[in-house]
Design a protein that fits this description.
Shape: elongated
Number of helices: 6
Number of domains: 2
CATH class of the largest domain: Alpha Beta
Oligomer: single chain
Helix content: 10-25%
Number of strands: 15
Strand content: 25-35%
Structural class: alpha/beta
Length: 304
């Protein structure tokens, strides 16, 4: 059997490891990936090295129509693949072409669904395994698994849970995919929601927003992403960690972004409807994040 894996990111590497464990010794594996963007953690060279180490063929490409291998394709998997895969490609797989997506489709079709789910304050996300289709994220569902999001989890923690769910779903359903014993159900397209591509520029804080919205943005874009940011003294200031204040003081003046207190636990900053404790920040010239109270030390300081 010839299996093709189109993948990217750390999740793609871990998916490759699990897929390799599930294959038979006589199976052939082809792996395709593409180079990370400047703000992403590197993954391409690691995926390439591991593919070659296990004897898989490897191609660096964003356009699968460029590929011209001689073996017939039995199965295709797509994991964190961001580019168009034409029908002529995915329909050539004898047993099917399968996509993994980190949401409970038809909700959150599109890009960066986990980041947007945290930004939106959702209490869950999930994993969907479905048939490839011409319109993205619309194929018939094979399996889904719900992944809870607790109110204080950061993107790194949620991504880890989602990645583990990918591996669980793959392990549980690979035998039936291999045997062609697949039961599916169509998506209810009337319930579909969509998310746009997230970029680091989308992580700029508006202090006039609600406390919850700012807090969710910070935890949704912290490590391993580029971080939510604001300006301080005319320069970029990244905020890596923040926390909600259980019983915040009630200010009757709304100077959003104004520092109103600090101690070793963090710096209190006014928001559109309350205040938020900022705990870890980093200026452009700082080699590492610093406790917020070492940077913001005046009641005249204002962010944004």
């Amino acid at each position: 059997m010839h299996v093709v894996l189109l993948c990217a990111t750390e999740r793609g590497l871990r998916f490759l490891e699990r897929l390799y464990q599930l294959l038979e010794p006589s199976d052939r594996l082809t792996v395709c990936s593409f180079r990370e963007t400047a703000w992403e953690p590197p993954y391409l060279e690691r995926i390439q090295a591991r593919a070659q180490q296990i004897g898989a063929s490897f191609y660096e490409t964003r356009n699968v129509t460029e590929l011209n291998w001689t073996l017939a394709v039995d199965m295709v998997f797509m994991v964190n693949w961001r580019y168009l895969v034409p029908r002529s490609f995915y329909e050539q797989a004898r047993l099917g072409s399968f996509v993994f997506h980190d949401s409970l489709l038809p909700a959150y079709r599109g890009f960066s669904p986990t980041v947007w789910a945290i930004i939106n304050g959702e209490d869950h996300t999930g994993v969907s395994l479905f048939h490839a289709s011409e319109a993205y994220d619309t194929g018939d569902i094979i399996a889904q698994q719900r992944v809870p999001i607790t109110p204080d989890e950061t993107i790194g923690e949620v991504v880890e849970h989602v990645t583990q769910a990918y591996l669980d779903v793959l392990t549980r359903h690979f035998p039936s995919l291999r045997n062609g014993d697949i039961h599916t159900h169509p998506q209810d397209h009337r319930l579909a929601t969509y998310t746009p591509k997230w970029t680091p520029a989308d992580a700029q804080i508006n202090w006039a927003w609600s406390t919850e919205r700012i807090y969710n943005l910070i935890r949704a874009t912290t490590v391993p992403y580029s971080g939510a940011f604001t300006t301080f003294e005319g320069r970029k200031l990244t905020i890596w960690r923040a926390s909600l204040i259980e019983q915040p003081r009630r200010y009757v003046v709304r100077l959003a972004g104004r520092v109103v207190g600090w101690d070793s636990a963090g710096v209190e900053v006014l928001t559109g409807d309350g205040m938020l404790r900022i705990e870890s920040v980093q200026r452009l010239h700082d080699p590492h994040p610093l406790p917020a109270h070492q940077v913001l030390q005046s009641l005249t300081d204002r962010l944004g």
